[in-house]
């Protein structure tokens, strides 16, 4: 390994001669001294050449690029190893800087980045960012959502591991569409037609018969014909399913633990990213408020059998105002609006034991209790005018005894976007796939 | 949640009246008593009806099925909740059983399993097992490899998290083939041709420019035309990539930590599965022995530019004999046998800084140092008669300064199969995909 200390560890090496390594984040020349700011995975460190101490906070001073004469310091995004003596400097990032530096260039960039990575704000449009993701994501503000995303997933798994769940990996190539016949990508599977899985729904249910409690973190695929700020053709689905429940409320209890665990993990693992973005993660109430769909309809004066985005937003405001909660469950969605595997509410004909979790007025999680008896599946499919042929592999589990069960699916990109306040879900994934975008 | 205690917790409730819930694993009738063995996610528990204590170890007695008169106990694989008084019984699993039981049936099976799940061995062929995976995987012997698999992945992530790696999620739908033009699944992407990713190779390299150290656990897809015991059309790839290395040996050092961490996690998290399968995880030497490819050729008297499976097996035996190691690195593979992104060995023309890790004589991991300079990629592609057009998205990262880096990919199913001694990689995944199999 290249022998080095990380920029965040400089203080521990005061007075020593050490090597840091990373990318040239910024170079800057003053009358008598020059600064080289190096970015590594822990943050920024500066090296200073010349006899004088730094005359100000270099990072806070965001001079126009033309003020920076190109001298003999390596260009921005050069990969460098810088050896110098660690010296206290109140103006340097972390309070220490390297003096009397020797700079070794490990790799030179061929091209300047499409926008300046050192500026505190991102001076490029979203399409430019996405077209140049491999370099654009080096900007601390663009990298931060991905750190929050990684910390969120770690918290998802940590919580479910603690609750006795087992991680599974299920097929992404399937013989028939899972969620609906539409919006599915076709694939040539050794000369046979097959599809990309729209969810691990059938498999996680089947594995509930094996492990009782399972989760999967994996890609799902939707051939979304809509070009919106909240749809992707591939996204990361955080799926969980558990058996031996009374009804959907047990699923909601687990989901509340999961969301709290994800936020706790983000606070613990991604604090610098939260600080950088100015994000304060919300507090999850001990019990997340819940309204029944019919009540949500009444509150939003809606007569429709589903909630439109504007109504979800209104409900998000209402939950904050009335319950002091950023989260709101909507329960009892009409059976007609839920997939065929949804368990009906025994007490309210036409309504389901299915729920959505709204986060700041946007649907974040869909879940519910599922049917668990074979004959109920046959009837549910018949009621929708479908036979069981296409679902035989799926229905197999239910022939052999399945416990009452339910689960949920949370879209990682939507979660991260909502948490960080990003307007577009494409800002919370490295290489989005959509109607128009297949590269990089 | 259905109020219950787990079978493994019975001892903590001695003398109390409690409810367990799970599947009827086996029922058995003797002259004066009947036994109902219930399986839940923590193991087995038995309930006994009638006045007499059990007369022997029920589980050890594997009487033919016809010896079991079908009486009024629910059939095998019924989902039940059994309430009874926890009573010490030396012959019962865990030393306690439920007496004076009341049995509630939560779901009845419609069909008997294709083979008896309670027998200590699996009385079915692999195709029968795979065709009936949702029920077959309930057999403790068939479930155990999946528990070991989950524990292995947890150890992979745990080790890399500790070493400062960041988890990423990358596109599985790509514009051009990553590893080679062959063995790739085509997909209709909104009317455009696209492919399923054969590896996250290009993306994990690009993200090394962002986070320095990254990993991904995700599906990869290979349109393998070969019907062998070690190939799957979809498998779970454990990928890692790190920057600021000297050469491939730094990657090997990290890989050694990862393999040790995976095995430690398996011992800690999946001890019952190991016991059940009679598996003793191997010890990883502080330094895994390594032989150069030319030396491996000499040892196996091979003149070929690659190692055949028989030679790998021979080397596995040799490593055990000579070094007391189940693991062996083979380094310095010929450049002609490695992908174009492989870094050459500066000291040995024609050889690479690429390596394989053999585990018990079978290739388990491929890795190495990669090229990191844009012009080296252009030259490497030209040397293979290829232009850069198809790789522009990939090569973008290298235009902007990339550190010396390398990484590796480990196939989860192969790992689990090798660890558990399974003859076929299909025994270490729930729902394998291959040339012939697309369901369940």
Level-2 CATH architecture of the largest domain in chain A: 2-Layer Sandwich
Q: How is the biggest beta sheet of chain A arranged?
A: 8 strands, mixed
Q: What count of domains describes the coordinates of chain A? A: 2
Unreliably modeled segments of chain A = 52-70
Reading the helices and strands of chain A in chain order gives EEEEEHHHEEEEHEEHHEHHEEEHHEH
Provide the gyration radius of chain A in Å: 26 Å
Give the helix proportion of chain A (percent range).
25-40%
Distance between the termini of chain A: 29 Å
CATH superfamily of the largest domain in chain A: Bira Bifunctional Protein, Domain 2
Strand portion of chain A: 25-35%
Largest interface: A-B, 99 and 100 residues
Short synopsis of the structure:
By secondary structure, chain A is an alpha+beta fold. Helix content of chain A is 28%, strand content 25%.
Structure description:
2 copies of one chain form a homodimer. Chain A has helices at 126-131, 133-136, 140-162, 201-211, 248-269, 271-277, 293-299, 309-323, 374-383, 392-399, 412-420, and strands spanning 17-29, 34-40, 43-49, 79-88, 96-107, 166-167, 173-174, 186-189, 192-196, 213-221, 234-243, 290-292, 327-331, 354-359, 362-370, 405-411. Chain A has an 8-stranded mixed β-sheet with strand order 6-10-11-16-15-14-13-12, sandwiched between helices. Chain A is α+β, with helices and mostly antiparallel strands and 440 residues long. Chain A is built from 11 helices and 16 strands. Chain A folds into 2 domains: 7-107, Nucleic acid-binding proteins (OB fold (Dihydrolipoamide Acetyltransferase, E2P), Beta Barrel), CATH 2.40.50; 135-428, BirA Bifunctional Protein, domain 2. In chain A, strand 2 (34-40) and strand 3 (43-49) form a beta hairpin. In chain A, helix 3 crosses helix 6 (271-277). In chain A, 51% of the residues are buried. Chains A and B meet through strand 1, helix 2, helix 3, strand 6 and strand 7 of A and strand 1, helix 2, helix 3, strand 6 and strand 7 of B. Chains A, B: L-aspartate binds at residues 179, 222, 366, 370. Chains A, B: Keywords: Aminoacyl-tRNA synthetase, ATP-binding, Cytoplasm, Ligase, Nucleotide-binding, Protein biosynthesis. Chains A, B: It is found in: Cytoplasm. Chains A, B: Its EC number is 6.1.1.23. Chains A, B: Its main location: cytoplasm.
């Amino acid at each position: 390994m290249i022998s080095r200390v990380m920029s965040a560890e400089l203080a521990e090496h005061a007075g020593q001669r050490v090597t840091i390594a990373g990318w040239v984040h910024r170079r800057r020349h003053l009358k008598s001294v020059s600064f080289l700011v190096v970015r590594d995975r822990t943050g920024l460190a500066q090296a200073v050449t010349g006899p004088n101490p730094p005359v100000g906070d270099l990072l806070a001073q965001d001079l126009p690029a033309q003020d920076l004469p190109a001298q003999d310091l390596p260009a921005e995004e050069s990969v460098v190893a810088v050896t110098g003596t660690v010296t206290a400097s109140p103006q340097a990032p972390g309070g220490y800087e390297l003096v009397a530096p020797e700079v070794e260039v490990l790799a030179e960039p061929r091209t300047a980045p499409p926008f300046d990575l050192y500026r505190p704000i991102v001076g490029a449009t979203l399409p430019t960012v996405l077209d140049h993701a491999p370099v654009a994501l080096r900007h601390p503000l663009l990298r931060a959502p991905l750190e929050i995303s990684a910390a969120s997933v770690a918290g998802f798994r940590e919580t479910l591991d603690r609750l006795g769940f087992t991680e599974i990996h299920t097929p992404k190539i399937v013989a028939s569409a899972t969620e609906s016949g539409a919006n599915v990508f076709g694939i040539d599977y050794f000369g046979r037609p097959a599809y990309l899985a729209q969810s691990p729904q059938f498999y996680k249910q089947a594995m509930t018969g094996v492990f009782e409690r399972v989760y999967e973190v994996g890609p799902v695929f939707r051939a979304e014909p809509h070009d919106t700020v909240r749809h992707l053709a591939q996204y990361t689905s955080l799926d969980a399913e558990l058996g031996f429940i009374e009804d959907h409320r047990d699923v909601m209890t687990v989901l509340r633990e999961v969301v709290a665990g994800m936020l706790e993990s983000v606070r613990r693992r991604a604090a610098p990213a939260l600080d950088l973005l100015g994000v304060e993660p919300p507090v999850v109430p001990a019990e997340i408020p819940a309204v029944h769909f019919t009540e949500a309809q009444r509150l939003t004066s809606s007569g429709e059998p589903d909630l439109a985005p504007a109504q979800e937003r209104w409900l998000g405001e209402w939950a904050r105002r009335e319950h002091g909660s950023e989260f709101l469950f909507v329960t009892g969605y009409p059976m007609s609006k839920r997939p065929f595997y949804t368990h009906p509410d025994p007490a309210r004909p036409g309504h389901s034991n299915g729920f959505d979790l709204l986060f700041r007025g946007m649907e974040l999680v869909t879940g519910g209790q599922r049917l668990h008896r074979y004959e109920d599946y046959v009837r549910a499919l018949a009621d929708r005018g479908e036979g069981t042929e296409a679902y035989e592999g799926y229905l197999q589990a239910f022939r052999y005894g399945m416990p009452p069960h339910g689960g949920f699916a949370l879209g990682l990109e939507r979660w991260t976007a909502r948490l960080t306040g990003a307007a577009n879900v494409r800002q919370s994934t490295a290489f989005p796939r959509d109607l128009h975008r297949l590269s990089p």
